[in-house]
Design goal:
Length: 127
C-alpha cells in the first residue's frame, strides 16, 4: 500500500512526523564535489517529503498531528534501548520486530509514537 492510499483510510489518532525540514543543517560536507552535491540533493528530497507528509496529515487530522525535528527526536536507539523503554512503558505490541540492526525504522517509529503519547497528554490537559 502506498502512503497516499493509507492516508485516505488512516484511523483518527495522534501522529508525529519527524520533519527534517525543521532542521536547517548540512551535516556531512566530506567528499568530492559530485559526492557533496549528491548528498545535498538527498537531504533536500528528505526535507521536502517530510514537510509534505506533515502538511498532508495536518490537513486531514489538524491538531492531532505533531512534528519533531531530528534534533528533538534525538539519537537513534539500538535494540537494547527499545526493549528498555517498551518494558518501562509496558508496551508489547511490536509486530514482526526481530531486533536486527536493519530494523532502525521500526525503532524510530516507536520513538515517534512515544512523542505522540506525550503530545496527546499535553493536548488533553489544555482542554
Amino acid at each position: 500500500m502506498h502512503f497516499l492510499d493509507w492516508v485516505w483510510i488512516a484511523p483518527v489518532g495522534f501522529y508525529t512526523v519527524e520533519n527534517s525540514y525543521l532542521q536547517d543543517l548540512t551535516f556531512d560536507m566530506k567528499g568530492s564535489k559530485p559526492e557533496i552535491a549528491k548528498k545535498s540533493r538527498h537531504v533536500g528530497m528528505n526535507q521536502a517529503i517530510s514537510e509534505a507528509t506533515f502538511r498532508i496529515l495536518q490537513k486531514m487530522f489538524g491538531d492531532y498531528v505533531f512534528e519533531v525535528s531530528p534534533k528533538l527526536k534525538g539519537q537513534k536507539w539500538n535494540d537494547a534501548q527499545l526493549k528498555l523503554y517498551s518494558k518501562h512503558f509496558n508496551h508489547t505490541v511490536f509486530l514482526n520486530y526481530k531486533g536486527l540492526i536493519s530494523e532502525q525504522d521500526k525503532r524510530d517509529a516507536y520513538k515517534l509514537a512515544l512523542f505522540s503519547i506525550d503530545f496527546e497528554k499535553k493536548l488533553k490537559k489544555s482542554f
